[in-house]
Amino acid sequence: MVLFLAKRTVGLLATLLAVSVVVFLVMNVLPGDPVLVILGIDSTPDAQAALREQLGLNAPLADRYVSWIAGVVQGDFGTSHSFGVPVAGLIAERLPLTLALALSATLLTVILALALGVLAGSNHRKPGDWGVMTLSQLGIAIPAFWLSMLLVLLFAVKLRWLPPGGFPGWGDPAAAARALVLPTVALALVQAAVLARVTRSSMLEVLRLDFTRTALATGLSRGRVLWRHVLPNALVPVVTIVGMQFANVVTGTIVIENVFYLPGLGRLIFQAISNRDLLTVQALVLLFAAIVVTANFVVDILYVLIDPRLRGRLA
Amino acid sequence: MNSSTAIAGSLLGALLLTAFPAWSKTAIVIGMQQEPTTLDPTSDATASIDGMLTHNVFEALTSVTEQGEVVPSLARSWTVSDDGLTYTFDLEQGVTFHDGTSFDAADVKFSFDRAMGADSVNPSKSIFEPIASVTVVDPATVELKLSRPDAFLLFNLAQGDASIVAPESVELAKTAPIGTGPFRYDSWTRGDRLTLARYPEHRNAADVQLEKVTFQFIADPAAASAALLSETLDAYPGFPAPEMMAQFEADDRFAVEIGSTEGEVIMAMNNAKAPFDDVRVRRAISHALDRTAIIDGAMYGQATPIGSFYPPHGKAYVDLTGMYPHDVARAKELLAEAGVAAGTVMTLRVPPFPYATRSAEIIQAQLAAAGLDVKVENVEWGFWLEEIYKNLNYDMTIIAHTSPNDMGNFARGKSYFYGYDNPEFTALWDQIKTEADPEKRDALLKQGQEFLASEAVHGFLFQLPKLGVVRKELSGFWKSSPVLFQPLAQVKWNG
After folding, report:
1. Which of A126, B144, B475, B479 could bridge B259 with an S-S bond, Cβ 3.0-4.6 Å?
2. Which of B35, B45, B174 sits opposite A271 (nearest CB)?
3. What is the pLDDT of residues B425-434, one digit of tens each?
4. The domain B262-464 belongs to what CATH superfamily?
């Protein structure tokens, strides 16, 4: 287990290092000058030169990368060109919202998908199955931003039950939770549609296996067989997909945060890329990469917890 | 009144305030499309900084009214010498910055020297270029010596770029700005909102009704519309989507105001590059453009066509929209004359603004009718600034020029992205910018408009409208924007 963890950590660091080099190069190849973005089209060449000097953009590319990475290793992500404040602070004030949104959306995805997937799988070729399949087809077809707009029109504009967007801060937890309801639903429904289908197929696979028939033959109730015997055995592919979906949800927050004007990381990265704010983009991409890699790591651990047969593989 | 009755009185007052919010509504939530990354108008060109802070938090020597007239602000009055080279400003006294430090002539000198200095990063450093020196005569008097007369100086000194800052607090300007205005900066939750609070020590504080102003950043038009309809926003003075105006007009909670801005929308042509260096080609393209169809299609009819580079609401405006009537046959003729073959491929590189991307598709079809094969390329803003603006790597583009008095763009020479260099126009502009007599200046400005139209330097499309959606009970919002700022001191809830 220790060896496994060590291997994964080294892998994680190597991935992040590679990501940082790629982002640094891409951001520098991408046409766009942070100085022009800040000073606009009426600025004079000498003011542009003065700002370029102040921001340290005249140093060679390699030097800038090395000094940046040296800072990161010591926990210093530098100061944002466009915001004029430390990058770490910018991210810290926004991370809780994005994490809360991504985790709540994933949780809702799993709950909905398991309920619907089990319903469909256990009612194979019956109305319940058809209903779930039709709904999930719809869910997959609807883009999240459009679903968001429909939800806002119904629940915020028409019924006035929930706010149309914005975030009041964590000071008032009830208001904060209310603000996250619609974004969570908008993010989760599409993912749940996909996951419900996976759960259903996986359930059908396991339902065909001999041990299911044996369990039923011993006189166990249908519900007990479904939830205690079939579902756990059907979970491995489901967990794999959840891991991939978590990455989708994290990146999906970029769109959802714009639709619901939430002050999260998604909006920050959007703004940072437009402003060619290299250091902020770098740090954010690294963070997103780290979140995704960590999610995959958690999935690997979950495999082992779900399926004892895999335990030998960790040695 | 003893202290206990005072306490009881204020408690009762507080109770009344909460019990009858309609009586005492003093807070407002305003929707903004663009969120800035810093808050200093003297070091960042982002228009929303001016939109929120200029003449609200920061003040300048002069200000500008909705009609574009220059009026006093921190300078109570001023005199100009006969040769137009010496400006003497008589400053307001007893003014304090929001941190309690006092304002005087030394702050003016500090602000201007900072904007003019060698290491200045002022986004409009050029407006200070005519100023040779700033002298503190006494704490209430400051004198500017100019190296040449400048007709626009007083107007320019009203802009956010010329905001008066204090040496004690300028370091904070980017994140927690301190000015002398009727509102002080209160807080900023990045990605979400910025709030201002009334500054009770301001000289006109008695006339300011709003106690709290919240700017909420909502870029997406659908989200902004939902926020207005669900009453979480009270006003959206620069609404981004003309197609949504109808639903607000039909809603009796809102007043829809369609005004003008200083933004001339042009389809710029790279005059430094063939075939656009040939005036016949530029005229052909002007004939091929149908402004009415562009305005109907891209702006839902909510814009005024322009035939040159000057706003229709301006005093010196001449209507030149008839100079190149929409005439495809004439366009083809001129193109043939210039030797541009039918099917010639041109690119139209468009920045990510709705007015531009929507106009582009219509223009593509109109130029196709004249036999030109236009490839539309949608580019991102950073890309536009680098490739089109800085490197002149383009054939045609669409852009709004939102600065006031910006006809001088055409005198900026070949390195400016127009690629246009005409000594005759440059000489005319030199005359315009130094002509002190308003009537003579207006006559010259008319001449300038005619010159640019006859040269067909660009395809002149329309004046960018200001689309405002505000609650009916609110008054005091500007309908038109002659400048980038929007003073809120006179905004009030009625009834």
Report:
1. B479
2. B35
3. 999 999 999 9
4. Dipeptide-binding Protein; Domain 3 (3.10.105.10)
